[in-house]
Amino acid sequence: MKRFNNLLLPILAAIGFLVMSSVYVVDEREKALRLWFGEVTAVIVDPGLNFKVPFLHEVVKYEDRILPLDVQPDEFTPLDDRRLVVDGFALWRIQDPVQFRRAVGSGGQRSATQKLDGIMNDGMRSVLGRVTSNEILSTDRTALMAEIRDAVREQATVLGVEIVDVRIKRADLPEQNLEATFGRMRAEREREAADEIARGNEAAQRVRASADRTVVETTSVAQKEADIIRGQADGKRNAIFAEAFGRDPEFFAFYRSLTAYEKSLNGDNATMIISPNSEFFDYLNSDSLNE
């Protein structure tokens, strides 16, 4: 009995191991293939518990969800020969697991990603080579991305894969062309700035010339009016002097002598060398003043 119990435990363990090895679970997010010596014998798309022959059947599981594909940035030459670096990505899913297995073998999704990267590159190169760089750099690239998606979708069917969507994340000039482009942009802005400065200097020169002309004209008019007023005043003064001289010549002569004395004796140099008997001192030597 004891010997029987010693044999029963390994037998039960072996049976349990065989049972565990003969069942497998397919998740609702997965698809599975059951292989018999590498040949597909069943495709399992419904989630749940399934059975297989231990050690003889191989079960391969694939994602049934939509998967991302980040395409490596690459240079493309549009229709106008303006090279651009385009960075894109795609969304894909395994549509036919049997075809997928035959196309990628045991490499699975990693091998499929590498193949899809090449297909995406070829499709983008084919489509982007027929359009201009302005269309690629445009903010509205919906039609362009749909065309790339259709081109890539057709090629991806050989892998048993469905391309759900294709997007262009970024489109820029190559690094070696950026500095030259920025240099041209700087030169253009500097040229525009120089033109604006030149136009500003020209306008300032016109304003200054107009202001100088206005100053000259205003000064000339004012000088003319001042000369006229001064001439009129001198004429009135002379008329008054003439009238005064006509009424009393002696007083007019006396007034003129006093004016001469004031101008001569109030200057910076008050020293005069002149004969005392000169007519200049007639009114100073007159008897009327001495009295």
Descriptive tags:
291 residues; alpha+beta; Tetrahydropterin Synthase, Chain A; four-stranded antiparallel beta sheet; 8 helices; 9 strands; 56% helix
Helix content: 55-70%
Tally the beta strands. Answer: 9
From the N-terminal CA to the C-terminal CA, the straight-line distance is 184 Å
The overall pLDDT, averaged over residues, is: 80
Order of helices and strands: HEEEEEEEEHHHHEHHH
CATH superfamily name of the largest domain? Band 7 domain
Strand content: 15-25%
In the CATH scheme, what's the topology name of the largest domain?
Tetrahydropterin Synthase, Chain A
The name of the CATH architecture of the largest domain is 2-Layer Sandwich
Number of domains: 4
Low-pLDDT runs: none
Number of helices: 8
Radius of gyration: 57 Å
Structural class: alpha+beta
User: Quick one: biggest sheet?
Assistant: 4 strands, antiparallel
Overall 3D geometry? rod-shaped
Layout of secondary structure:
Elements: H1 2-21, E1 23-26, E2 30-36, E3 39-44, E4 48-51, E5 57-63, E6 67-70, E7 74-76, E8 84-94, H2 97-104, H3 108-128, H4 133-137, H5 142-156, E9 161-172, H6 175-247, H7 249-265, H8 287-290
Antiparallel strand pairs: 1-4, 2-3, 2-5, 6-8, 7-8, 8-9
Can you walk me through this structure?
This protein is α+β, with helices and mostly antiparallel strands. The chain has four domains: 2-62, no CATH class; 67-173, Tetrahydropterin Synthase, Chain A (2-Layer Sandwich), CATH 3.30.479; 184-247; 252-291, no CATH class. The chain has eight helices and nine strands. The chain has helices at residues 2-21, 97-104, 108-128, 133-137, 142-156, 175-247, 249-265, 287-290, and strands spanning 23-26, 30-36, 39-44, 48-51, 57-63, 67-70, 74-76, 84-94, 161-172. The strands form three sheets. Strands 6, 7, 8 and 9 form a four-stranded antiparallel sheet that branches. Strands 3-2-5 form a three-stranded antiparallel sheet, with no helix packed on it. The N and C termini lie far apart (184 Å). The mean pLDDT is 80.
